[in-house]
Give the backbone structure.
Amino acid sequence: MSTDVTAKTPAPAPPGKSGTAAGGGLLQLVLDGLRRNMRQYGMLIALGLIVALFAVWTDGDLLLPRNVSNLVLQNSYILILAIGMMLIIIAGHIDLSVGSLTAFIGSMAAVFMVDNDIAWPLAVLLCLSVGAAAGAAQGFFISYLGIPSFIVTLAGMLVFRGLTEIFLKGQTLGPFPEGLQKVANGFLPEVGPDTNYHNLTLLLGFAVLAFVVFQEVRDRGRQQEFALDVPPMNLFVLKLVAISAAVLTVTMLLASYKGAPIVLLVLGALVVGFGYVMRNAIIGRHVYAIGGNLPAAKLSGVKDKKVVFLLFVNMGMLAALAGLVFAARFNAASPKAGLNFELEAIAAAYIGGASMSGGVGTVLGAIIGGVVLGVLNNGMNLVGIGTDWQQVIKGLVLLAAVGFDVWNKRKVGS
Amino acid sequence: MAGPVLEMRSIVKTFPGVKALSDVTLTVRQGEVHAICGENGAGKSTLMKVLSGVHPHGTYEGDILFEGEVVSFKDIRASEHHGIVIIHQELALVPYMSIAENIFLGNEHATRGFISWNDTLKHAAELLRRVGLDENPQTRVADIGVGKQQLVEIAKALSKKVKLLILDEPTAALNDEDSGKLLDLILGLKDQGITSIIISHKLNEIETVADSVTILRDGQTIETLDVKAAETTEDRIISGMVGRDLEHRFPERTPHQPEAGVAPALEIRGWTVHHPIDQQRKVVDDVSINVRRGEIVGIAGLMGAGRTELAMSVFGRTYGRYTDGVVLKDGTEIRTKTVSDAVKHGIAYVTEDRKHYGLNLIDTINRNISLSALNKVTKRGVVDEHEERKVSEGFRKSMNIKAPTVFEPVGKLSGGNQQKVVLSKWIFTGPDVLILDEPTRGIDVGAKFEIYTVIDKLAADGKAVVFISSELPELLGMCDRIYTMAAGRLTGEFSRAEATQESLMRQMTKDKEVNR
């Protein structure tokens, strides 16, 4: 299940060690496990370190319930884009147009809802369709005409940015209907008795926790059933405890403010859905095969053109979703919206473990990469680092993350 | 005649797990054209790579004497410095640079880092005259034909003051006219005192151009013959190339008895395919073959014979530009325009190049095995990893794939085990016809036997097997019937009883005339 960090392959323990190690060697086991799964865990640990660093630096402000809530809202659109971008990069392509497309959809939304008073649910559907159509147009050029995705989406980047300015006539357009704002900026409703916490969020958190633990246990059971090596029991328990602690912490933080943002639920659904598709659906496998070895995939009967086309349609829809969330959050469509979003999404994918040559990466990785960037942004804002230095630091983090990955792979590979 | 310009003494070169050269000795006299021939994998290219410094000094054993001195090249530059230049089969030209720029690439006429174009063009024009190429030196290499590109390579070699020119199958990609011109040029260079080594499969070519010929087999020098001597005939060379003892072990096979009245599982009629870029060239020319259920049919041919091209163009048109021909499955015509079509009709193609066309090396064994038939482990659009694991574990055991689990990345496996994964993948699609392209290339003897056993079992289970190979002993050991191909044409068909290494090799080296 995609809730597992090691989603792509359940990492088996080294033969002969399974379940037999004494409790005293636990630290050793943890270190061994980390070393073998650097790729999966490396970034998660880095994220932990970054969070800890800024938590201390900001005297705990980073982890204030209000700030955590903010963090989610601020980064939701980048994370949505990062999911789609990860799939595209796994297939060995790139999409530079998503930032402009985000702005373009924002302007369409304003034209539909502000200028023409179309009911917002209908307008949302229209916007998603426009996004899909934009993605389809680019995907057609890329997969069926064979124009490199870099070129097609670079053109798209200019075209959609230009169209945005044309539609908005250079002006900022707003406000959006209240219903849409509630979805983009709102929280789960209050229900039940007054407990000082947000009840629905608590329930949801516990449900997620139960689900994750259930999945982990079931996976382990299945692996044992197939006589595969599984991590020793104490390491497994440690992993469960770590996951539980993380889920509970986030739940409590959100529940002690206004509750879980609705956007977070949307995002969660996307992560679970896309994670599942990428791992368990035929099309997901085909995406990995195309990126891993295109000629071999073709000779295996993979319909590579159709898959790449659909990936870009999907990216267009996700960009539309991001555009709607962004526009609704700021309650206006602006010609300067979504600037550099494509770069943030690409950076998130690479920080999260994607490979330049394709074939590698997970949806959860993209989220981790996106959250690393988000925490960096937020933390640096809190401690008052200027945007000039913020860019320098983010650039170095990207370089370090990918550099570490390359170094690590070379060490293991040769 | 003059003394030796080059002596290679007791050269031994090992790659991990394979001994490519074991004790090769080669003596080339000053001013001669020396041919080297041998089957694919005999060690010809490896020997030339040792000589030219691609495999640097220290990675092989033995001595190289050039012009009487022991030399040790650490790279290509070092050998070129001594006047030894190799022209590889795949030309090493930059297509979008001009002829002149290509000739002097890495060796530019320049002062203080800036190219002096007048010198470059003048000198290039002189060189082009020497090789008899009537082209403007400013023409882009991409705009001239392969034959002319070959001449540009030779001009480039001449610019490096070449003393010993090595040509690796120079005419493999050329038509008759260009081949003739090239051979004339080699003789012309000989008159100018340049010694040449030419690797070739075409025996008529060797007879025309070479003074002596060294035959390699299984990484060893078999003999060196004087081509002009009366006793050196094509048959003599062929027996030298193939005359290995048939000590290979193959599984016991009961030869297939064709059933009367049953249509062949796969029949190809009048198949013709043109080269994807050089559209004038027919890569497969009017080929018709058939294979029945339970039968193993071999296709023998040397490099460039068009065997892989035939197989790939039939399998979903994945090679070249199709022009003519039909495919019949069990007597009815089928469409195989895409790979999915071919797979749907129960055809499987196991590629000769498993790393590039067969496997996703960064992915695991189980995902590679299931890729072509994911629908078989899918329920309601969802891949059942349970089932997938079970299937691939089954293959791991039955095919004896040596890996701790099926979650091992395929890239970490040895060649033989990778080949077993590719075979498993295609067997899992449940094919009726399997086209196996060099299924034992680059794998060790033990794994070969395992693969032979699998192939035998497939035939026994009623599958039709097309077995493409350059290794004659394995074709003779495994096949019920063998076709031979040369230069894109079918040149012969032999029953198991008729076929011998000599008879096959004669048809495989038949260059032009068609003989059915």
